[in-house]
C-alpha cells in the first residue's frame, strides 16, 4: 500500500514500535496498521538519536516480511528429504511431542550435551533475543555456544582490553568534534544516524577522515580518504603512534594519569615507520603525512571503528591500535573526544537474572559458533551433536564455509528443529519448523550497542496465523519437558523487569516494564552527565587505567600487545563481503530485491585483464565453492580486491551458493578465534 493510499484509508492507526535488527542504531518506529496488518513502517521521534530517520530496508521490506508468502504461520513436519521443502502442517501439541521425542532420544543415547542451541542475533529485543530460551537450554544441560566469534566479539574484546566494561563515547558527541575519524565502518549502510551527525559537524567546520578499503559513500564527504589494503590497518596505526612519539605529540599528562603499558606499546609501534606503512598498506606516504598533520592540529578528535576490521586475522590488533591512537594523544576526558563504541555498557543489564545460567549443570562444554558445522560432522566428538535447535539465526547464509554447514545440516541422524518468522534457507533442513511471531506481534524491551537509549514496545498487530513469540514457545517447551519451576512461567513483563536493574539511577525510578512507549530512556552517567571516558565514566580494568598492554590478552591469546601477522594469499584476488543496503545480515534476503543476482564490484584494471565487462555474469571460485555474480566495474575498489555484499540467500546465484561458500572457516582472528570473512581469496572468469 502506498503512503498516499495509507493516508486516506479509514480505520488506520499509528502505533509506536522499535526496530529489533542487528544494527547499532536501534531506531524508534512509527507503524501504520489496520489492526491486523502492517501497512507502513516509518521512523519516529521517540528516540532523539534516531529522530525519525530509518533505513530504506526497514521501511520498504518489513510489510512483505510480516505478511509475504514466505511467512511461517503454523508448525510444520518434514515429510521429504532434507532441503526438499516437503512439509505438512501439524498442531503445536504435535510439534512439541516430536521435539520432546527427538531431543530425548538424543539425550537418552548420548546425554544432554548432545543437544545444541544454534542461535545468534536475529531480533535484538532482550526477550526474543535471549531470555526464556536460555533458561530452557540451561536447565536441559545442553551444550553452550560461544556466539561472539561469528561477529562482534573481536571488536568488543579489543575495546574491553583497553577500557574494560566502561561505555564509550556517545555518537551524538561527535557533533562537538573538530575532527572525526571513521575506520572500517560503512556508516551510511550500517550506522545511518552517525552519518547525519557527521554531516552536521562538517557544517560547523569539522574535518572528516575515512579509512576503508572501498570508497564507501561517507568517503565522498571526507577531507581525506585513505584506501587501505584490507587487513593492514594495524600497521598504519602503529606507525602513526611511533611518529607521534617522535614528534613529541603525545599527551604525557593524560598518559601518566590514565594509561598502563605505554612503554611496551610504543616499543611495539616503533617496529613500523611511515614508509613501512605506506608500503604494507599500499597507501601514498603523502596521505599518511596529511593524516598526521590534520590529526595533531585538531583539539577534539572522535573516532568510530566499525566491525569491518575484525573480519581479518589481525582484526583485534587493528582495532586496539586504532583506539590506542586516541589514548596516547589524550583525546579523552571531554565531550567530542573519544572512541565511539560499546554504549551498551551504559545499560544496567542483569543478564544472569534474565537468563539464569545457575540452572546449568557444572562442566557443560562450550563450543565456538564458527566450529558448529565441523562439530556436527565429527563422529568422534564426545558426546556427538545429535539434536540442533536453530532459532534467531540463518546459519546457512551467515556462517563461513557454507557448503560444510549444508553437509552438516543434511545428516539424517541429527534431529533438527527450526524456529523463525519466515521460511529461510536454514529452515529447509529442519525436521520440525516452528512459526515465530515477529517483534510487531509481541512485547519487548530494547537496549542498543551503538547508542545509549533504552526503549520498550508493545505489539502493534495480533500474532500472524498460529505463530507464537519466542518466550511463549520456550515456556510451552519447558512445560512439555516437565520443567515446572515458577521461573519457566514468568510472563513477558516480569522478564523485562528481570532484564535490567530497576534500582539503577538510569532507570529514573521506573521498572523496565514501565518505560514509556512514546519516548526512550537515556542511559546517562552519574548525576545525568554525558558518557565521557576519564571524566564521568572510568576504565573498568584491573589496573583502573586504560591498558595498552593487556595481561589478560597475553594470557588468553598471546597478544598482550597488538601485532600484525600477514595472511598468505593463495589466489589472485581478495574478496570482501560487507553489509548490504538491502539486508541486515541475512534478514530480508528472501525479498524480491535480494533474490536477484548479487553484484561483484571489480576494478577496471582487473576486469580488463580477465575479459569482464560491466553488468556481465562472472564466476568466482576457490577450493570451497563457486558463486555466480554480476560484475560492476568501478574504481571505488582497489585493484586485486572484490566486493560483494553478505547475506544473500542460495537462490540468488545460479550455483545455489553464496559468497559464504568461499570463506575459509579455519582461518581465525588473533583474539577470540573469530571468523575471518575478509581473508577470502578467489579467482574469477566470465560465467
Q: Explain this structure to me?
A:
The chain is of the alpha/beta class and 687 residues long. It has three domains: 76-150 and 347-443 and 466-500, Rossmann fold, CATH 3.40.50.740; 169-340 and 532-557, Dimethylsulfoxide Reductase, domain 2 (3-Layer(aba) Sandwich); 573-686, Barwin-like endoglucanases (Beta Barrel). Helix content is 29%, strand content 17%. Strands 5-4-17-16-15-6 form a six-stranded mixed sheet, covered by helices on one side. It has a six-stranded mixed sheet with strand order 23-25-24-27-22-26. Strands 10-9-8-12-13 form a five-stranded parallel sheet, sandwiched between helices. The longest helix is centred in the first third of the chain and has 19 residues, at 92-110. The protein is globular. The two termini are 39 Å apart. Mean pLDDT is 97; it is low at 1-5.
What attributes does this structure have?
Barwin-like endoglucanases; 6-stranded mixed β-sheet; disordered N terminus; 687 residues; Dimethylsulfoxide Reductase, domain 2; alpha/beta; 23 helices; globular; 27 strands; metal ion binding; Rossmann fold
Number of helices: 23
Q: What's the main sheet like?
A: 6 strands, mixed
The mean pLDDT is 97
Task: Please give the CATH class of the largest domain.
Answer: Alpha Beta
Oligomeric state of the chains?
single chain
The separation of the N and C termini measures 39 Å
GO molecular function: iron-sulfur cluster binding; metal ion binding; molybdopterin cofactor binding; oxidoreductase activity
Keywords: Iron, Iron-sulfur, Metal-binding
InterPro entries: Asp_de-COase-like_dom_sf (IPR009010), MoPterin_dinucl-bd_dom (IPR006657), Mopterin_OxRdtase (IPR006656), Mopterin_OxRdtase_4Fe-4S_dom (IPR006963), Prok_Mopterin_Oxidored (IPR050612)
Protein name: Molybdopterin-binding oxidoreductase
Amino acid at each position: 500500500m502506498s503512503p498516499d493510499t495509507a493516508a486516506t484509508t479509514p480505520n488506520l492507526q499509528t502505533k509506536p514500535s522499535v526496530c529489533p535488527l542487528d544494527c547499532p542504531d536501534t531506531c524508534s518506529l512509527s507503524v501504520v496498521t489496520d489492526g491486523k496488518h502492517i501497512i507502513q513502517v516509518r521512523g519516529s521521534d521517540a528516540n532523539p538519536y534516531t529522530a525519525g530517520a530509518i533505513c530504506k530496508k526497514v521501511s520498504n521490506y518489513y510489510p512483505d516480511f510480516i505478511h509475504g508468502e514466505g511467512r511461517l504461520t503454523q508448525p510444520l513436519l518434514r515429510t521429504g528429504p532434507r532441503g526438499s521443502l516437503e512439509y505438512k502442517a501439524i498442531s503445536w501439541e504435535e510439534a512439541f511431542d516430536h521435539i520432546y521425542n527427538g531431543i530425548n532420544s538424543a539425550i537418552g543415547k548420548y546425554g544432554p550435551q548432545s543437544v545444541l542451541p544454534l542461535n545468534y542475533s536475529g531480533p535484538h529485543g532482550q526477550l526474543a533475543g535471549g531470555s526464556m530460551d536460555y533458561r530452557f537450554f540451561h536447565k536441559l544441560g545442553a551444550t553452550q555456544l560461544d556466539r561472539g566469534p561469528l561477529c562482534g566479539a573481536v571488536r568488543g574484546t579489543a575495546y574491553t582490553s583497553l577500557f574494560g566494561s566502561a561505555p564509550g563515547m556517545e555518537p551524538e558527541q561527535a557533533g562537538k568534534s573538530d575532527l572525526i575519524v571513521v575506520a572500517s565502518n560503512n556508516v551510511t549502510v550500517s550506522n545511518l544516524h552517525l552519518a547525519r551527525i557527521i554531516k552536521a559537524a562538517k557544517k560547523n567546520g569539522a574535518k572528516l577522515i575515512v579509512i576503508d578499503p572501498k570508497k564507501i559513500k561517507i568517503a565522498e564527504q571526507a577531507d581525506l580518504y585513505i584506501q587501505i589494503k584490507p587487513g593492514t590497518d594495524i600497521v598504519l596505526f602503529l606507525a602513526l603512534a611511533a611518529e607521534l612519539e617522535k614528534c613529541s605529540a603525545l599527551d604525557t599528562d593524560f598518559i601518566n594519569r590514565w594509561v598502563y603499558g605505554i612503554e611496551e606499546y610504543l616499543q611495539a609501534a616503533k617496529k613500523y615507520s611511515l614508509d613501512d606503512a605506506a608500503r604494507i598498506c599500499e597507501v601514498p606516504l603523502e596521505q599518511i603525512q596529511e593524516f598526521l598533520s590534520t590529526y595533531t592540529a585538531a583539539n577534539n578528535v572522535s573516532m568510530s571503528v566499525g566491525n569491518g576490521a575484525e573480519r581479518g586475522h589481525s582484526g583485534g590488533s587493528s582495532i586496539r591500535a586504532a583506539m590506542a591512537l586516541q589514548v596516547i594523544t589524550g583525546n579523552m576526558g571531554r565531550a567530542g573526544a573519544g572512541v565511539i563504541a560499546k554504549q551498551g555498557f551504559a545499560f544496567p543489564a542483569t543478564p544472569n537474572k534474565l537468563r539464569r545460567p545457575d540452572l546449568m549443570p557444572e562442566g557443560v562444554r562450550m563450543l565456538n559458533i564458527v566450529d558448529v558445522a565441523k562439530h556436527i560432522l565429527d563422529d568422534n566428538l564426545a558426546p556427538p551433536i545429535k539434536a540442533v535447535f536453530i532459532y534467531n539465526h540463518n546459519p546457512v547464509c551467515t556462517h563461513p564455509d557454507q557448503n560444510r554447514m549444508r553437509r552438516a545440516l543434511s545428516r539424517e541422524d541429527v534431529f533438527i528443529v527450526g524456529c523463525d518468522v519466515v521460511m529461510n534457507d536454514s529452515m529447509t533442513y529442519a525436521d520440525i519448523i516452528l512459526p515465530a511471531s515477529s517483534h510487531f506481534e509481541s512485547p519487548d524491551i530494547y537496549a542498543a550497542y551503538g547508542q545509549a537509549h533504552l526503549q520498550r514496545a508493545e505489539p502493534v498487530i495480533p500474532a500472524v496465523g498460529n505463530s507464537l513469540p519466542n518466550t511463549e514457545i520456550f515456556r510451552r517447551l519447558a512445560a512439555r519437558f516437565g520443567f515446572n519451576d515458577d521461573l519457566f512461567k514468568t510472563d513477558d513483563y516480569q522478564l523485562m523487569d528481570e532484564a535490567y536493574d530497576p534500582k539503577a539511577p538510569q532507570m529514573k525510578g521506573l521498572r523496565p516494564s514501565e518505560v514509556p512507549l512514546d519516548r526512550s530512556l537515556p542511559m546517562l552517567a552519574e548525576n545525568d552527565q554525558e558518557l565521557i571516558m576519564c571524566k564521568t565514566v572510568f576504565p573498568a580494568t584491573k589496573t583502573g587505567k586504560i591498558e595498552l598492554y593487556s595481561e589478560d590478552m597475553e594470557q588468553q591469546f598471546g597478544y598482550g600487545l597488538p601485532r600484525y601477522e600477514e595472511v598468505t594469499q593463495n589466489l589472485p584476488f581478495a574478496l570482501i563481503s560487507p553489509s548490504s543496503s538491502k539486508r541486515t545480515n541475512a534478514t530480508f534476503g528472501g525479498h524480491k530485491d535480494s533474490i536477484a543476482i548479487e553484484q561483484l564490484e571489480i576494478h577496471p584494471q582487473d576486469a580488463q585483464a580477465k575479459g569482464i565487462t560491466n553488468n556481465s555474469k562472472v564466476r568466482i571460485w576457490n577450493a570451497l565453492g563457486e558463486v555466480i555474480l554480476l560484475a560492476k566495474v568501478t574504481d571505488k575498489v582497489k585493484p586485486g580486491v572484490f566486493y560483494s555484499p553478505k547475506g544473500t540467500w542460495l537462490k540468488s546465484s545460479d550455483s545455489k551458493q553464496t559468497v559464504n561458500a568461499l570463506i575459509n572457516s579455519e582461518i581465525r582472528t588473533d583474539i577470540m578465534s573469530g571468523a575471518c570473512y575478509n581473508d577470502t581469496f578467489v579467482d574469477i572468469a566470465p560465467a
